[in-house]
């Protein structure tokens, strides 16, 4: 199973790159983690925010693999524990296919991306910076895998 993190935003700080890479390299080949960064829609003085979000949505929809299960990370999504995440990873792996996890930009996900998602997860009730979400999600995916393996990392 390939897990794609499809994220709006490029040119992340070094600590984001290092954090993401640390957990991505720990993932086993049977649950490979792949990052797909998408350009942020144009924002600035006089910019049309709706157009920016639509542009991000177009790129995100194009980046989703054919036949992938889609999960959106959204503040209004369902809170999920590490153990629940591990269980869902096990189910996804048994069912086969790949997974696309969508992380929007500073103004959230395009409504079309939310509508396409079969599930919506919330990592926290806190507002998290989108770069940090990449690192946090990669760590939780790794932690979920360790739970499934009975590895002591989770304890």
TrEMBL record:
<keyword id="KW-0963">Cytoplasm</keyword>
<comment type="subunit">
    <text>Homodimer.</text>
</comment>
<keyword id="KW-0698">rRNA processing</keyword>
<dbReference type="InterPro" id="IPR029028">
    <property type="entry name" value="Alpha/beta_knot_MTases"/>
</dbReference>
<dbReference type="InterPro" id="IPR003742">
    <property type="entry name" value="RlmH-like"/>
</dbReference>
<feature type="binding site">
    <location>
        <position position="104"/>
    </location>
    <ligand>
        <name>S-adenosyl-L-methionine</name>
    </ligand>
</feature>
<keyword id="KW-0808">Transferase</keyword>
<feature type="binding site">
    <location>
        <position position="73"/>
    </location>
    <ligand>
        <name>S-adenosyl-L-methionine</name>
    </ligand>
</feature>
<dbReference type="InterPro" id="IPR029026">
    <property type="entry name" value="tRNA_m1G_MTases_N"/>
</dbReference>
<comment type="function">
    <text>Specifically methylates the pseudouridine at position 1915 (m3Psi1915) in 23S rRNA.</text>
</comment>
<keyword id="KW-0949">S-adenosyl-L-methionine</keyword>
<protein>
    <recommendedName>
        <fullName>Ribosomal RNA large subunit methyltransferase H</fullName>
        <ecNumber>2.1.1.177</ecNumber>
    </recommendedName>
</protein>
<comment type="similarity">
    <text>Belongs to the RNA methyltransferase RlmH family.</text>
</comment>
<dbReference type="Pfam" id="PF02590">
    <property type="entry name" value="SPOUT_MTase"/>
</dbReference>
<dbReference type="GO" id="GO:0005737">
    <property type="term" value="C:cytoplasm"/>
</dbReference>
<keyword id="KW-0489">Methyltransferase</keyword>
<feature type="binding site">
    <location>
        <begin position="123"/>
        <end position="128"/>
    </location>
    <ligand>
        <name>S-adenosyl-L-methionine</name>
    </ligand>
</feature>
<dbReference type="GO" id="GO:0070038">
    <property type="term" value="F:rRNA (pseudouridine-N3-)-methyltransferase activity"/>
</dbReference>
